[in-house]
Fold this sequence. Notes:
This protein is mostly beta strands. It has helices at residues 8-15, 32-35; strands at residues 45-53, 60-66, 71-78, 80-91, 94-102, 115-125, 128-138, 146-158. The protein contains 2 helices and 8 strands, in the order H-H-E-E-E-E-E-E-E-E. The chain has an 8-stranded antiparallel β-barrel. A hairpin with a 2-residue loop joins strand 6 (115-125) and strand 7. The longest helix is centred in the N-terminal third of the chain and has 8 residues, at 8-15. The protein is globular, with a radius of gyration of 16 Å.
Amino acid sequence: MSENAIGRRQALRGVGIAAGGVAVAGLATATPALADGGESNGLAGSWMCARQDTGSPAKIRLVLSFAGGGVFLSHDISPAGPPFTGTWSSEGKSFRVTMWTGQAGAQGPNSPGPTIRVRVWGSVSHGKLTAKYQVTVFAPMSETQVLNTGTGTVSGRRISP
């Protein structure tokens, strides 16, 4: 095994569906329905969620945030993980997300490490968000060499102001 390779469990632990909980400038004064021109069909804003990787009994708490302009943020909060940033779109009650994060390399915080892409697809119904996700971990400095993949589910409810 190469020194740049990381185990599936380590990669998925660092993955967290995460891209949320971060305040986005300008959203603090806008209502969620107006923040994206009213096109989100109820998605805009932040959601308190739980995610579970396929094959793991552990549930991770996280915040997902859908912002205007297609900006998406996610952050595992218990246990804490790195933030993810990306983009989202919706059609009807369904939505899709692609988000990314990186990890420090094996040689320390300034060395290239793996990057992680998470693709999410789901829907909102009766105030509840449900989705599935696929995680892909790429080798350092590569957009094609896949080290690991994984899947899971996420569900949650909107965070009240």
